[in-house]
Amino acid sequence: MNLRVLLPPLRLVRTPLPLLFLTLFCLQSFAQTIVTGTVTDQATGEAIPGVSILAKGTTVGTSTAIDGTYRLNVPTNSKTLVFSFVGFGTKEMAINNQSTVNVVLATDLRQLQEVVVTALGIKKDIRRTGVAIQTVDGASTVKAREPNAINALAGKVAGLTVGASPELLRRPNVMLRGNSDILYVVDGVPVNTDTWNISPDDIETYSVLKGATASALYGFRGKNGAILITTKRGTKDKRGFSVDVNSSTMIDNGFYAIPKVQDEYGPGDHGRYAFVDGKGGGLNDGDYDAGWGPKFEGQPIPQYDSPIDPVTGQRIPTPYIARGKDNLKRFLNPGILSTNNISIGASTEKYNLRFSTSHIFQKGIVPNTKLNITNFNITADYNFSKKLTFQSGLQYNRQYTPNIPDVNYGPNSIIYNMTLWGGADWNVDDMRNYWQPGKEGIQQIYAEYQRYNNPYFMSYEWLRGHQKTDVIGQASLNYKITDFLDVMLRTQVTTWNLFRSEKMPYSAGSYGREERRGDYREDRRNLFENNTDVLVKFDKDLFPDFNAKIWAGGNIRSFEYSSQYGSTDYLNVPGLYNFSNSARPVKTSNYGSAMRVNSAYYSADFTYRNLFTISTTGRVDKLSTLPTGNNTFFYPSVAFSTVLSDYLKMPDVISFFKLRGSYANVKDALTRSTIGTTPALGGGNPLGYGDQYYSPYDGPSYQNAAVYSTPFAYNNTPAAYYTNTLNNPNLQPSSTSQSEFGLDFRILENRIALDATYFVSNEGPRIFSLPVSTTTGYSSALVNGIKTRKTGWEVALTGKPLRSATGLNWNVVANYSTFKEVLTEIYPGVDALDTFFKVGDRLDKFYGRHAFAKTDDGQIINDASGRPVYSPVRQFLGYSNPKFVFGINNKFSYHDFTFSFQFDGRIGGVIADYVQQQTFRGGRNIALVQGKMEEARYQDYKGVKSWVGPGVQIANDGKLNFDADGEITNLNELTFTPNTTKQFLQDWVSRYYDSDEGNLMSRSFGMLREVVIGYALPVSLLERSKFIKTASISLVGRNLLYFAEKKDIDLNQYVSGGNSGLQTPSTRRYGVNLSLTF
Amino acid sequence: MKFKSRFTYAFLVLGLVLSGCEKSFEDLEKDPNRAITAPASLVLQGIEFDLYDNTGRPFSSEMRWNQFYAINYNYYGNNEYQFQEMPNHFFTLKNVVKMEQEAKRAGAADVNSYSALGKFFRAYFYDQMSARVGDLPAMEALEGSGNLTPKYDTQKQVYVQILKWLDEANADITALVAKGETSVPGDFYFGGDLRKWQKATNALKLRVLIRLSKKADDAELNVKSRFAEVLSNPAKFPLLEGMSDNLQFISNNFNKYPSNPDNFGFDATRQNMAKTYIDLAASRQDPRVMVVAEPAGAELKAGKKPSDFTAFVGASSGEDLTDMADKAGRDNGAGFAPGLYSFQSRSRYYTNYVGEAVFILGYPELCFNLAEGLNRGWGSGDAEAWYKKGIKSSQEFYGVKDGTLTMRYSRTGGRDAADFGTYTIDFSFDKYYAQPLVKYDGNTAPGLEKILTQKYLAFFMNSGMEAYFNYRRTGIPKFYTGVGTGNSGRIAVRWLYPFSERTTNETNYKEAIQRQFSGNDGINETLWISK
User: Fold this and answer.
1) pLDDT, position A957
2) What contacts A860, CB < 8 A, 6 or more positions away?
3) Looking at beta carbons, which pairs linking B210-213 to residues 24 or more positions away fall under 8 Å?
4) Residues A90, A83: contact at Cβ < 8 Å?
5) Contact: A776, B255; criterion CB under 8 Å
6) Of the candidates B29, B413, B500, which has its C-beta nearest A626's C-beta?
7) What percent of chain B has a predicted confidence (pLDDT) above 70?
8) Residue A1019 parent element (H or E)
């Protein structure tokens, strides 16, 4: 074929669109004969739905129904029918005056069989797709399981980074092309999700729309890309029904990321410790550092459980020994992840039903913590007639737990209490009976009473409950006006309610609750959202070889949210968790918001032969969060694809070669993706400690409101403070323009496929809080400003190195992605952002706290005490984003056996390791008793300064002068000599490691993510049972190997940012999966 | 078919009902959760709270920079003079503007109690900021979007304006009181009594005049004659008449005194007394030291009585933190508080949430300011009388008066009832005053040093950073330096401008640092008022 044929049709595309529409309705007026028949698959004998049938030489056509049948009024001038379907060879059949024409189609190995789900649930042939979409089969995620459907995507999609959290119920940090707020869509409609309310067992496919073009049809919610989830429907079983059971039981055991701590020195300060009351009454017996006390040498020291001399009333010293070696490991239990799913499907010509229920039970590794998720899912589709069909689905999901741990830094955290600040002087087993005799319900037992808490007491008495119920339902009615014109009405409701409670027992302490008199808290949130759509679908070959697929629709989205938070201010009666029991006035607050979005949108694809497809979409939103006049905006997108291999002569080895390109402009304004505890806006965490739970929201942010906040100030009376943000009545929506170019190249009969995308995303002007001079009385002004440019690559390589119908098969998928974002513009008259960032800078530059003052040749400058001097201003320490992210999946099958594994990771970038920082400062880091520090640590205990830190000191009595950037201005006046001042290791460590620079580590890691060894029982064996149709059993493992510079933190969860936090240790997971079909 | 169309219709209706369109887009844009307006009284509460909250609370880093106490636990801080950005009061000043607007919106006259207090607050916060950094935008500031890049006024202009505000506030209150408007709703410091605010206004004026002592000869500031005017015209410029007129913050269960039972275990042995304060008080046999501090455990163990002033030992703020921690933490055995140093009084600061009143503008300071002005010859009057009043009122605040004083101390360093013991000392003010270290030397330099020293003692844990400002201005008392005070052994003399000024108001900021400090916004650069 020759490229020149492209030219005439191109001109046709330029024909004004309205003309095309006009031609639509005047096509069918010939004499006709009726032909019916069934289309089946040569390989399986099963019916093929959706095969397109064309009366040759005309524009008359149809497609097969779900049972593979068709009926076509063939104009008398046509003698031949053309049957075509993606993945099958096209077949022409002469009619020969028959009224029934049955056809068997054979698979075309050279043809691609891929259909992808694009925005609005439109299924498209991969050849006609001009945007980057990667699909993951739902079945591949339910063997070596994650409790959360989205976690399971880690490493499976190029450009999608999933930072699974080791904590129960924590939302994973998900990033798509460097953006974190991603839209989730189930069966065509956006849903409000915390990622835990999606049942993995009900997922047919995940379709990841990576860029703005792909998701522009969803309006502002889709501006960062989307993950489309298509749920399973009915059954394809020939009997018309099937029952599937999938059951997994996995154990969380064996740590791959856990801080290593020393158990040779106990708590205290400069080697001194003696317990009197654990509240500062003794020698460093309150709020102590876990490892800076005396060495465990069996010497007599008064301890928390030393007997009291009845005469003096004082504790009789007892031998000081390391009773608490490996306390944390002994405290934590193996976790369990057990998931069970049963689904029943039935289908006939008339209806299509599926009921599925799942239960996920997760027992945390911290004692007395667990999480249950129960899910019901019903889909019911009914065909009133060939023209009128109805589809519906209802999902009920409930998450419930009486207690999940809070790991965030503070006395509310087990890790804080046991690893950072708790010593090895007490034995965790002695803490199981945690009430003091005679003070049950009032006073815990622990080795310290000022700051910290007994871990068992925390686990069994300090309870954080969580109950969330999600109901998502949708129904749609589709009316087929003609073969090529459908009208659909659809309405969907997403609603959830959340109840969280915290019971804080008497004698438990945390930041801001030092009186230790207990508390009770409730956090209630409710969300309701409705999307109602009208959608008109047109799909037709307008002329021979020219197909138009046009969808147009309108949507009304209504949103309401309300929340309420209440807390006691200490309790009167210990153990009674009720607001009426509050010692001081109860603190409550409430919040409500509402929003409406009216939208109209269209998607139009035009395909000329198999030469090229041009897709355009457009959407208009009228959004209630913006000021009138600026609240209606349009976003366009256009995409182009062409399969060169279809019309250019290429070497035989090339089976497929597609090029694609696209552009989109998307906008958004004054909404936020998540919301925290009430007061929900700007208030932060009302607790002042622990984890702030953010629930999904996608509602108004009210950022542009000029308002007072009225917190309690003096003596529990309110005060009014005016906002520090200047509002802007002329605010425009944020804007992002994204272009991408891609190729899809496959060789050797599609056995090796390369899909590569390069994207450029020009983000901004955004709605941006422009810092303004605080001398105006305000810290920022809401403006349209700041532009950044994100560029990146995504590459997926798919291979089938071995393929054999009867023997060994090997499939491999490798993903690679990288991006960087630079600042391209700030605001007129402003040449730096957040003090440090200039135009041209990467946005992930990490400016660390307490960088060391250094000489010209990079040596640390120490003060006269032999400890590093900090630069007074944060300094650039490195880039926090990885250079690239990769994943490799391998799947082998041999007869009834399968073996698959996935290895993935992220390479490059730096992070300041907070666990290292705090274990050093608390004196527990294992390095303190190893290597060169070992002796110095012992000398500290003996009261001898012996540690000499690296670097230099100023020799000539010079004084360091810094400028406003933290640069030393008088280095040339100073002379330096190597540091020789001996210092206590404790005091040097406390300075050196209280810095981001001292704790900087590579954030590269690699992970053996999953391994599945499966065995499917042979069909011959099962046939005898006449009951079980398929059965497979798999041995599965997750997170089996972890490679990183330091393993005290699990880098998986940190997808961005320069600092780590605390975490519950990360465990390996392994178990058995059983899958049966009846 | 009929069924089907009905079904379709029902479906459509259902969709519309669910998408509920009751509210207009305009209504939906508004935030239903927060107020667009607020009563001036509510705004005043916030400003008044900031008056205490952001200017240097007791047992804060500011009080370490005053060298009243020191911290020996590096995890919680240090004693270094590594000043950062100045405390930014422009947001509070914005609330002052809003308070004035809200009062007017509610129908108040142009001059009203809120506008009068507004002038006081402007003067107070501008003084707090300018004394720390130097030049500041004043004339063009606080206009919101009206002027996003306010020009900096010179420090002199700022102080001219401060004095103007104070004079206007004084005159406005006089006029209001004459009209019968004597109270200001929302005020928690004086129960709304405007006349007390007037006294505080004039007390602040005296503080500001003293602050400008190095510029006493500046014609525009007119420090001396303004001082003389206040002194000679008490009817026009009423002043605090005693401790009951103090502008002071009283802690409560919701706003706890910073040292309280909750944090004993965090701070008790990590915060020791500083040598600067202890030595000045102990060398004068001043019982105030026994009220605010404990005798050092090592001294008692060595046999000293708690009533022995030499048992009170402070650590030099310049001491290496390592050594201070080591010395403060030495085990003195059972029955003795640890360490070589005195700690803050367990009974006064760790047994309740109220602690002591925290002066924002206190009567003793007023007395010493008057004494200092007189010593400097800015007016006629008896400097010694004010000096003595200052000492006496401060001592009485601590319960120190003639007779036998019973002192409470912690034998063990603990704070339980069983830990406490008592001792008595006899105190006579006259005897105290007769000491050469105390007795006023007349209006001479040694006399001034006496005034400044006693003023320093009276500033213990109150009045923000006034103790430091007086030191910076006069060099009295001697502050200790060393590796522990950082900054290469120097006491820093100014704070930095807010970092955001470098990028948000670059031209004006650069001009201001250029004319003041040859372009270096550094902590060791000398302010105009210090020259």
Assistant:
1) 81
2) A852, A853, A854, A868, A949, A950, A951, A952
3) B210/B369, B210/B372, B210/B373, B211/B127, B211/B131, B211/B159, B211/B469, B211/B473, B211/B529, B212/B159, B212/B529, B213/B372, B213/B376, B213/B473, B213/B474
4) yes
5) no
6) B29
7) 96
8) helix A1019-1025
Q: How many CA atoms, within 13 angstroms, populate the side-chain half-sphere of residue A88? A: 21
Give strand pairing partners of A495.
A471, A528
Other beta carbons within 10 angstroms of residue A417's beta carbon come to: 23
Q: What is d(CA B383, CA B441) in angstroms, rounded to the nearest whole number? A: 10
Among A358-362, A675-679, A951-955, which is the least confidently predicted range?
A: A675-679
**Tokens representing B419?**
């830990």
Q: What is the dihedral of CA B123, B127, B133, B136, to 10 degrees?
A: 20
Task: State the residue for tokens 């992605």.
Answer: A817
Longest CA pairwise span in chain B (Å): 113
Contact B490 A865 (CB under 8 A): no
Q: Which among A489, A717, A718 is the nearest to B15, CB-wise?
A: A489
Tell me: the pLDDT tens digits for A638-672? 999 998 888 888 888 898 899 999 999 999 889 99
Specify whether the CB–CB gap between A193 and A122 falls below 8 A: no
CA distances from residue B70 to A866, A989, B59, B74, B342 in whole angstroms, order as listed: 21, 21, 9, 11, 11
Best mutation site among A446, A517, A727, A775 for testing chain B: the one with the most B CBs within 10 Å?
A775
Residues of A in contact with B414 (CB under 8 A): 276-277, 280-281
CA distance A753 to A796: 8
Residue A127: φ, ψ to 5°: -65, -25
ipTM of the complex: 0.94
| Runs of H (alpha helix) within A160-303 | 212-215
pTM listed for this prediction? 0.89
Q: For A773, which of B84, B148, B338 is closest by C-beta distance?
A: B148
Sheet with A103-105, edge to edge strand ranges: A69-75, A32-41, A103-105
Per-residue pLDDT, A111: 52
Residues in chain B closer than 8 A to A558 (CB atoms): 18-21
Q: What angle do CA A580, A586, A592 make, to 5 degrees?
A: 115
Q: Which residue has the higher pLDDT, A329 or A1026?
A: A329
pLDDT tens per residue, range A404-418? 999 999 999 999 999
Q: Contact A677/A523 with Cβ under 8 angstroms?
A: yes
CA quadruple B364, B366, B371, B375: dihedral sign:
positive
Mutate to test the interface with A, among B135, B249, B485, B488 (most CBs of A within 10 A): B488
Q: Which of B447, B329, B446 is nearest to B386 (CA)?
A: B447
Q: Which are the contacts of A455, defined by CB distance < 8 A and separation ≥ 6?
A: A331, A414, A417, A418, A422, A428, A431
Q: Is the peptide bond before B238 cis (omega within 30 degrees of 0)?
A: no
Question: In this structure, are residues A614 and A606 in contact, taking their beta carbons and an 8 Å threshold?
Answer: yes
Using CB atoms, pick whichever of A514, A778, A781 lies closest to residue B262.
Answer: A514
Which pLDDT value is given to residue A70? 86
Pick from A12-21, A318-327, A1038-1047, B418-427: least confident: A12-21
Q: Sorting pLDDT into bands at 50, 70 and 90, what band is B14?
A: low
Asked whether the beta carbons of residue B46 and residue A626 sit closer than 8 angstroms, the reply is no
Please state, in angstroms and as integers, the Cα–Cα distance from residue B436 to each residue in B284, B439, B449, following that order.
9, 5, 12
Distance from CA of B352 to the nearest CA of A (A): 12
List, for residues A230-252, the tens digit of each pLDDT value. Answer: 888 877 777 778 899 999 999 99
Contact between residue A182 and residue A174 where contact means Cβ atoms under 8 Å apart = yes
End-to-end CA distance of chain A: 51
* B143–A776 CB contact, under 8 Å: yes
Mean pLDDT of B473-502: 95
Closest CA to B435 of B284, B276, B281: B284
pLDDT band of B203, cuts 50, 70, 90: very high
